[in-house]
């Protein structure tokens, strides 16, 4: 058997075994909240014109911002091999400082308080 056939056989077997286990393993105890079509906390049978809270979007945007920050700061360890690693470190530090000041400002304004 060549290597490609062996790898395909192992992956197919592993996928099949994990799919079968995933059907047998979970505990089936549905409650009314899990049986509803939406798990967002809104009544799906009510009016569709209810406004969303802006705080929900603020938290979502902050989450995306800090995810993006991690993606931008990830290549910094490899910047040591560049011609001018100090420039990369300076830009990364400025992005991190700007995001930190923005978070402090948002926190001081009370934008992160979920319940009033």
From TrEMBL:
Annotated GO CC locations: mitochondrial membrane; NADH dehydrogenase complex
Listed GO MF terms: NADH dehydrogenase (ubiquinone) activity
EC number: 7.1.1.2
Annotated localization: Mitochondrion membrane
Transmembrane segments: 52-74, 86-105
Catalytically driven reaction(s): a ubiquinone + NADH + 5 H(+)(in) = a ubiquinol + NAD(+) + 4 H(+)(out)
Keywords for this protein: Electron transport, Membrane, Mitochondrion, NAD, Respiratory chain, Signal, Translocase, Transmembrane, Transmembrane helix, Transport, Ubiquinone
Signal peptide start-end: 1-19
Lipid bilayer topology: Multi-pass membrane protein
Family from the record: Belongs to the complex I subunit 3 family.
Biological role: Core subunit of the mitochondrial membrane respiratory chain NADH dehydrogenase (Complex I) which catalyzes electron transfer from NADH through the respiratory chain, using ubiquinone as an electron acceptor. Essential for the catalytic activity of complex I.
Protein name stated in the entry: NADH-ubiquinone oxidoreductase chain 3
UniProt organism field: Solegnathus hardwickii
């Amino acid at each position: 058997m060549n290597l490609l056939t062996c790898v395909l056989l192992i992956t197919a077997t592993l996928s099949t075994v994990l799919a079968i286990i995933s059907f047998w393993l979970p505990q089936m105890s549905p409650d009314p909240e899990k049986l509803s079509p939406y798990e967002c906390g809104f009544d799906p049978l009510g009016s569709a014109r209810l406004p969303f809270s802006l705080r929900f979007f603020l938290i979502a945007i902050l989450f995306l911002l800090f995810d993006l920050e991690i993606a931008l700061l990830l290549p910094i360890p490899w910047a040591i091999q560049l011609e001018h690693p100090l420039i990369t470190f300076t830009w990364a530090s400025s992005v991190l400082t700007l995001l930190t000041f923005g978070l402090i400002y948002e926190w001081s304004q009370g934008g992160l308080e979920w319940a009033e």
